[in-house]
Design goal:
Elements: H1 2-27, H2 35-135, H3 138-249, H4 254-266, H5 270-287
Length: about 290
């Protein structure tokens, strides 16, 4: 909006200057208008344009420096967050690997205990079968049967102890799984922080691109101003030619002066009038 207001001010100044020159040309600029006044006006206009260009360059450079500082800060923050995330991820990975190893050891021990339990149950079945066979000869094998029953009691106690240890190991595995879930949740939070830093970095890049686009638009506007200055210079040259031609017309009779003025009003532009007037003077000199 500020650039648009400055451009509007420049165009208004150019338009006022063009109107002033046009009024002077149409009304007939006489010898009383000073050339130094026009030179002073042109010099003031050029100085104002140079001051505006310098101010705009200073504002643009300061804004670019500010954006670059913000970008460097964002990149540094992004690098720090990435290093912290990598450290946390490495620590979590090592902890996870240790927990996995422990879980595998616990599972191996559980399998061993289950195998021992299966073996004990198999032995129990075999022993029961033997007891059934031994009952047929109870009188002969009564003493052996009592010994076997004592062995079965001990095996039952061993099985109970093994079941208790299995329950404890299962509870430990559940605790380990909960710890792994907590580590995964912490890893997710760190990933979200990293994504936030990445979005901020993208916003900084977008601001830089917008600034570059505004600089290109400003360059186009400066080119337009230069074109207007060139047109103004051409119009001033035309005005000088008109004054020189009017001084030549003073030597013509009054009737011819009126015809020339009417011809000037009838022309669409000053170059067309100058061309017609040159042809007319050339024809008069030829006739003379």
């Amino acid at each position: 909006m500020e650039d648009l207001g400055e451009n509007t001010t420049v165009l208004s100044s150019l338009r006022s200057l063009n109107n002033f020159i046009s009024q002077r040309v149409e009304g007939g600029i006489g010898p009383d208008v000073s050339t130094s006044a026009q030179g002073s006006l042109q010099m003031q206009y050029q100085q104002s344009m140079q001051l505006e260009e310098r101010a705009e360059q200073i504002r643009s450079k300061s804004h670019i420096i500010q954006v670059e500082r913000e970008k460097m800060q964002m990149e540094l923050s992004h690098k720090r967050a990435r290093v912290e995330l990598e450290r946390a991820a490495s620590t979590s990975a090592r902890s996870y690997e240790r927990e996995v190893d422990r879980n595998q050891e616990l599972l191996a021990r559980i399998r061993q205990l289950q195998e021992r339990e299966a073996e004990a149950e198999e032995k129990m079945k075999e022993q029961l079968e033997r007891n059934r066979l031994c009952k047929q000869s109870l009188d002969v094998a009564s003493r052996k049967l009592r010994e076997k029953e004592d062995g079965l009691a001990e095996a039952g106690e061993t099985i109970s102890e093994l079941k208790g240890r299995i329950s404890e190991l299962q509870w430990s595995v559940m605790n380990q799984e909960m710890q792994v879930k907590d580590l995964e949740s912490e890893k997710q939070e760190l990933q979200e922080q990293l994504d936030l830093q990445h979005r901020k970095w993208q916003e900084a890049n977008q601001k830089i691109q917008e600034l570059q686009a505004s600089q290109e638009a400003r360059a186009d506007q400066e080119q337009k101003v230069k074109d207007l200055e060139q047109k103004l210079s051409l119009q001033e040259q035309d005005a000088v030619i008109v004054r020189s031609m009017k001084s030549e017309l003073v030597r013509l009779p009054k009737v011819e002066q009126e015809l020339v003025q009417l011809h000037l009003l009838a022309q669409d532009s000053i170059p067309a009038f100058l061309s017609a007037l040159t042809l007319d003077l050339f024809s008069r000199q030829t006739v003379a």
